[in-house]
Amino acid sequence: MRLGGYAGNGGGAAGPNGNPGSGERLLNLALERYGVWLRSTVVCLCGALGVVSADATEIPLAVSLLVPALLACGVRLCSLRRPLPFPLPLALLWTLDAAVVVLTGLSQPVLGGVGADAMVEAITGICVITFQHEWATRPVAAAALAASGTAACAMGDVLSSPGHGPEPAELVRIVVLAGLSRAAYLIVRAQARAADRSAALRAAARREAEAAAARRATEREYLATLHDTASATLLMVSQGDARDWSWLPPRARQDLEALSAVPGFETGSVDLAALLGCVPEGTGGEGGALVQLKTRVDGPLAVPSGPGLAIFNGVREAVTNVARHSGVREAELRAWTEKDGAVVVELSDAGRGFDPRSVPARRRGISGSVIGRMHAVGGTATVTSHPGTGTRVQWRWHTRARPPGTGHEAQPANLPHPSRAGAHTAVARLIRRQLLHGAQLAALLISLLSQFILSLQQITAHQSAYRPAWAQTAAFVCLAAVAACGAAFLLRGRQIPPRVRAWSLASVLTVSAVCAFTLAPERLTGPRDWAFGLVGWHALFLLADLPVRAFAAFLGAHVGVNAIAVLLSGAPTAAESAAMGIAAITTCGFQLSVGILVTRLLHGTAPAAGDEAAREEELRTRERIHEDMQRDHKERYRALTATTVPLLMGLGHGVLSPHDEEVRLRCRVEAARMRRLFAESDAVSDPLLNELRACVEVAEHRGVAVSLAVRGRPGEVPREVRRALIDPVVVTLGRSRSTARVTVVWTWHEVRVSVVGTDRATEEASPSPGPATAAGVSVTRTARGGSVWVEASWSKRAAPEVDLT
Questions:
Q1: Contact present, 654 and 203 (Cβ < 8 Å)
Q2: Which residues, 6 or more positions from 108, have their beta carbon under 8 angstroms from its beta carbon?
Q3: pLDDT at residue 801 above 50?
Q4: Is the pLDDT of residue 547 over 80?
Q5: 3, 121 Cβ separation under 8 angstroms
Q6: Which keywords are on file for this protein (predicted)?
Q7: 319 neighbors 347 (Cβ within 8 angstroms)
Q8: How many Cβ atoms sit within 10 Å of the Cβ of residue 516?
């Protein structure tokens, strides 16, 4: 009995860096299930055919050997579903697999005859093939099982023919089949691992992008919170002492609480109507409620907490702006739900109004605290105002809104992310494409090696059996040409064109007919029929990308051609029919099962692997975002600890007095530093000059006349260096009372920022703590009379490699 058609095809995938990826895990599981089911089916069917072809006196003994083999297969099937109280140990599973081939080999001398030889060789061949898939992750165990199958086959030959040794050719076939099966698995696994690596690289890029977007969204929220709390409080303290400061301690404590909270981790839903009822009436810093809110809210308004808190904080800032700038003491706050499900909040006043286009970009009250917050959560905010006609601010958020960022502060857990859904589909397509290519390459390898190792030996050894021999030789050459044509496309990573595939399939089917009608019918599917088990592998790599019914139709046509050739010569005997049935099951049936496996891998395992990879990536992304936010928050709060936090704590607990000139000077400096920090997020061509202007505006707001001069061509300056260059200017401007002059000089190797402040405080206080001087930045201070000159310089040639952002 020939085994030329038995060569396994399986696949697995491994993730990058040697770690199993989702593709490899699911593919190995699918291969294990496939191998056990296929082996059990073949043992059952071929064992039944072997018993049918045996003598009636030998049936009881044969059944006593084959039934335990079937029971071992049944236990192995049960282990796949894990119905037992505990998983079976690997040693027991290996023993069960080995028992199947050993018991099958022992049944050969009991059954006797050609049917027994065919049954044992068929079962043994299938077993050594499927062992390479069932034990794909343990190649030593698979090799040991293949060796036990070879030994069982040899033992059956010896026991059935005393005095004669085993057939060397059949043993070589079994070894070759095991090697082909392992090679096919390695090919598909390599393709799946390539898919895993590509998917991992894409996922890492998406993770970096999502983490960066989440960090940007959190940074915007942090800056908006800083603007609404500490910056506003310190700026008001720095502007004078002729005020009622009774409002200051509780507000300073509230600012501390807001700054210490970690932004971006709000989850669940909130009642926006209840939140709007807690909006404080703006004070403007003078004490007393300066704005009376007329609230009309159609509640409850259940919204995710991210958008809810963004609207609440934006409304709070807008009320504060009414108190400071509108000139009226009343405002109307409304909230309702529209028919399309959008939640709308509107704050309006009848004050003096303004032109929104005239507001400088460095002013953060509208752009950051109101509009920026809503954009971060996928909503919108609009400000409508004209001089003399009042102002209306409207916030709108829809349940179908999708935030641009991917951090948790921007996306509630119950909303799907369309880009991630698309990423899931892309990963599944990538894995499917790689698995298809791997399956085609594996089938091509099996075709070529089976043809030039197994079939070539058959056709050369049995030339006298063919009538005429030249037709069989021509058919052999034709199959080789089909394989070469397929390899020309597949080895270059291309799919076989439909026209080429059609001509190739017609050629393969013609080979099947030629070989069937130029060989004696009783020898079909036997050792002299080199083509019966070979043409199916050629058809498989041609049809792998089509539905499995196309491959099944080809195999049906192939078997039908051989059946017609047999029937035209007369009805076969029962033994001949059993032998041919075993051949059909173990060749075409096995090939069809491989085609079904390929379809399952492409349309079942690949999407499942994509989904699992996407879920794993979702967890990694969440962990990454969480870690980044925690780290960023710690870094921000550490930076505030040295300067802003001591001021707020002192003001909040009455240790520092806003009547103290030194306290106001410190507040001035800190307010300017915060404005410089806000300006860092601006997308401008000259960040250094932009941040300097933000600090200058703070000084001008309290009446200092500042002149700013720039000489030279601006260039790139790292962020930390910009901070170190500007901080001495901030301190000097904070202590200047009437005039100041700031100069920026650019040269090809150096940047210098200097400031001359006049009318300094009569008592020189200790310098306000600032950021540590960056590498390469030197600061020079000179005092003369009532003025002070400070210069900070940075040498580009001595600068280390630093972040330019």
A1: no
A2: 116, 117, 119, 120, 156, 157, 159, 160
A3: no
A4: yes
A5: yes
A6: Kinase, Membrane, Transferase, Transmembrane, Transmembrane helix, Two-component regulatory system
A7: yes
A8: 22
Token pair listed for 399: 């349940």
Distance, CA of 78 to CA of 152 (rounded, Å): 25
Sign of CA dihedral 760, 764, 769, 773: positive
Return contacts of 83-92, CB within 8 angstroms, 24+ apart.
Answer: 90/138, 90/141
* Interatomic CA distance for residues 168 and 260, integer angstroms: 80
User: What are the phi and psi torsion angles at 9 (to 5°)?
Assistant: -135, 125
Q: Which residues contact 417 (CB under 8 A, 6 or more apart)?
A: 402, 406, 411
The type of residue at 612 is: E
Going by the DSSP 8-state scheme, the letter that residue 666 receives in this structure is H
What are residue 709's DSSP bridge partners? 743
Three-point CA angle 438, 442, 443, nearest 5°: 120
Structure tokens at 6: 């038995």
What distance in Å separates the CA atoms of residue 670 and residue 238, rounded to the nearest whole number? Answer: 10
- Residue 494: partners with Cβ closer than 8 Å, 6 or more residues away: none
99: which 2 tokens?
A: 């028992």
Which residues are bridge partners to 744 per DSSP?
Answer: 710, 753
Residue written as tokens 């008001």? Answer: 236
Q: Which of 325, 238, 330 is nearest to 281 (CA)?
A: 330
Alpha helices in 322-468 (DSSP H): 364-366, 373-376, 418-449, 456-461
What type of residue sits at position 206? R
With beta carbons less than 8 A apart as the criterion, state whether 40 and 74 touch. yes
Widest CA span in the chain: 126
* Most confident residue range from 315-329, 649-663, 733-747: 733-747
Please tell me which of 225-229, 378-382, 583-587, 624-628 the model is most confident about, judged by mean pLDDT: 378-382
pLDDT in tens, 144-172: 988 888 888 888 777 777 666 667 777 88
Give pLDDT, residue 12: 36
**Cβ pair 453, 176 in contact under 8 A:** yes
Distance CA 590, CA 10 (A): 13
Reading the block at residue 607, the tokens are 């999407």
Q: Give the angle 632-638-641 at the CA atoms, nearest 5°.
A: 145
- Bridge partners of residue 390, in order along the sequence: none
DSSP one-letter string for 486-505: HHHHHTTT-PPPHHHHHHHH
Q: How many helices (H) and strands (E) does the chain have?
A: 25, 12
Say how far apart CA 162 and CA 160 lie, in whole Å.
6
Q: What pLDDT, on the 0 to 100 scale, is given for residue 759?
A: 61
Average pLDDT over residues 310-332: 84
- Please tell me the distance from the alpha carbon of residue 692 to that of residue 715, in angstroms, as a whole number: 15
Residue in 438, 432, 482, 454 with CA at minimum distance from that of residue 7 = 454
Instruction: Decide if 506 contacts 484 (C-beta within 8 A).
Output: no
Residue with tokens 């709308």, as numbered in its chain: 344
Report yes or no: 349 and 328 within 8 Å, Cβ to Cβ: yes
Flag whether pLDDT at 349 surpasses 70: yes
3-state secondary structure of 269: strand
Which residues neighbour 797 within 8 Å (Cβ) at sequence distance 6 or greater? 749
Look at residue 751 in the predicted model and tell me its pLDDT: 93
Global pTM? Answer: 0.57
Helix (H) or strand (E) holding 343: strand 343-349
∠ CA 240-246-248, nearest 5°, is 65
Angle among Cα 736, 737, 741 to the nearest 5 degrees reads: 50
Tell me how far apart the alpha carbons of residues 319 and 316 are, in angstroms, rounded to a whole number.
5
Question: What integer best gives the mean pLDDT of the chain?
Answer: 79
- Bridge partner list, 793: 752, 778
Rounded mean pLDDT, 207-234: 79
Report all structural domains of the chain as residue ranges with CATH numbers, in order of start.
Answer: 16-205+421-619 (no CATH), 265-406 (3.30.565.10), 682-795 (3.30.565.10)
Residue written as tokens 């109507």? 273
Percent of the chain exceeding pLDDT 70 equals 82
